[in-house]
Amino acid sequence: MPWDKLFGGVNKPADAKDLTDLEKKHLPVLCAPDSVKAGACFEVVVEVGKLLAHPNENGHFIEFVELYADDIYLARADLTAVTTCPSVRFNVSLPGAVKQLRAFARCNLHGVWVSAMSIAVKE
């Protein structure tokens, strides 16, 4: 992917079924229940580098991970270069209207990356 495109917006895979190594290293992977009760707390794990290890050194690392429910901002974790595995756990609750969880992760060299998963919120 050309350098100027990496920082021109939010990056996502060109083909979700055939990921490049760059995409595998940078996509945040979400792990959460398929359905939850509205207002009930549950855990969401977001891991960058799960598909292919991402370097975490002073010159190349994941700076932050953010979690959204549709367009509702839920949480953020700031990371440092000494983080050996950029994996974060969030405890959140959702209102009934949410349909999708989205995770954003920013690499200091390769920009912001996003992935999403559907979630059913039951009243």
UniProtKB/TrEMBL annotation:
<keyword id="KW-0408">Iron</keyword>
<comment type="similarity">
    <text>Belongs to the desulfoferrodoxin family.</text>
</comment>
<dbReference type="InterPro" id="IPR036073">
    <property type="entry name" value="Desulfoferrodoxin_Fe-bd_dom_sf"/>
</dbReference>
<feature type="domain" description="Desulfoferrodoxin ferrous iron-binding">
    <location>
        <begin position="20"/>
        <end position="114"/>
    </location>
</feature>
<keyword id="KW-0249">Electron transport</keyword>
<dbReference type="InterPro" id="IPR002742">
    <property type="entry name" value="Desulfoferrodoxin_Fe-bd_dom"/>
</dbReference>
<dbReference type="InterPro" id="IPR051233">
    <property type="entry name" value="Desulfoferrodoxin_SOR"/>
</dbReference>
<keyword id="KW-0813">Transport</keyword>
<keyword id="KW-0479">Metal-binding</keyword>
<dbReference type="GO" id="GO:0005506">
    <property type="term" value="F:iron ion binding"/>
</dbReference>
<dbReference type="Pfam" id="PF01880">
    <property type="entry name" value="Desulfoferrodox"/>
</dbReference>
<protein>
    <recommendedName>
        <fullName>Desulfoferrodoxin ferrous iron-binding domain-containing protein</fullName>
    </recommendedName>
</protein>
<dbReference type="GO" id="GO:0016491">
    <property type="term" value="F:oxidoreductase activity"/>
</dbReference>
